[in-house]
Amino acid sequence: MTVLDRRVVLAPMAGGPSTVDLATAVTVAGGFAFLAGAYLTPDRLRDDIVLLRSAVGGAAFGVNLFAPNPYEPGSAARVLEFATRLQPLADKAGVPLGDPVHDDDSFDAKIEVLLAERPAAVSFAFAWPPADVVDRLRAAGIEVWVTVNDASETAWADELGVDGLVAQGWEAGGHRGGPVDSGHHQAPTRLLLQSIRAVTSLPVVATGGVADPTHLAGLLAAGAHAVACGTAFLRADEAGTAEVHRHELTHRADTVVTRAFTGRSARALVTSWTEVFTEVAPAAYPQVHHLTAPLRAHGKATGQPDLVHLWAGTGHRTTRQGPASEILEQLSARL
Question: What is the pLDDT of residues 248-291, one digit of tens each?
């Protein structure tokens, strides 16, 4: 059994789209929402949890964090070389590049917030949470979920003693959430789900490219405990998605998995940025994320899509504008 008792899950979308209003709307309409905690300060995370709990009247919800990646000393030179390649673009925009620091996104402080506020579940992406963190969260009555992109990672999750898995298929928009960022092509959602279900009895939330009720129902029939949707909610009224991002979701066709924006593989709409920098961007998160952040923020503010990380899953062309409750209802039509 798990506290995650809804069939449709709102995936966390850090960096803007994930808002308290969006999580509230999905929860009230009958979904299970994960609030994105990445990139927030610990105080802001606490405030958002308090606001969401008040808004949903005690209904269960989750929080997602990025577990910190270890620093690789050899990455510094590669990031510096990448900065040199980006400099002409920054000069043209009149925006300085950011400081490519390596940090842990205030991970320990956020764990303390979660232990104090006790959401029903916490999911992790990017790396494995330390075993003692898993133990402390579970001892506090908080379920722990981890993201995987390959069935072989399931054994590691079993060793950690987590409560469930988020199986993120290749079609998913945004960052690859599993602990190994190989940069290589990975299994599509349905195949990944089937491979994981063959090796574990843990409940599995399937996610990646889910764009319509038939696809969602098919994943549930294939053994998913629930299905998480992110891209489908990017154009929801309550989402914090930038206007330039909303527009491009229905005006561009192709997506690509690239490290060009953050130094970690992520699926985005194809733009001149992805075409020029995908092959030369180093695997160095979060240094590249910090390096490019001012330029990407400038693109959002000025409506220049070729300067923005336009995260999108492969089903992005079917996204719809409207209240999150209506989007949830449409996705649930075959349940």
Answer: 999 999 999 999 999 999 999 999 999 999 999 999 999 999 99
Q: Is residue 174 part of a domain?
A: yes
Q: Is the dihedral of CA 227, 132, 178, 307 positive or negative?
A: positive
Q: Which strand (E) or helix (H) includes residue 204?
A: strand 204-207
The residues with which 144 forms a beta bridge, in sequence order, are 122
Q: How far is CA 16 from the centre of its chain?
A: 11
Query: Taking the CB of residue 256, how many other CB atoms lie within 10 A of it?
Result: 15
26 and 158 in a common domain: yes
pLDDT digits over 82-114, tens only?
Answer: 999 999 999 999 999 999 999 999 999 999 999
Instruction: Report how far residue 9's alpha carbon sits from residue 18's, in angstroms, rounded to the nearest whole number.
Output: 13
Check whether residue 126 and residue 207 sit in a common domain.
Answer: yes
Q: What is the CATH number of the domain that holds 196?
A: 3.20.20.70
DSSP tag of 120: S
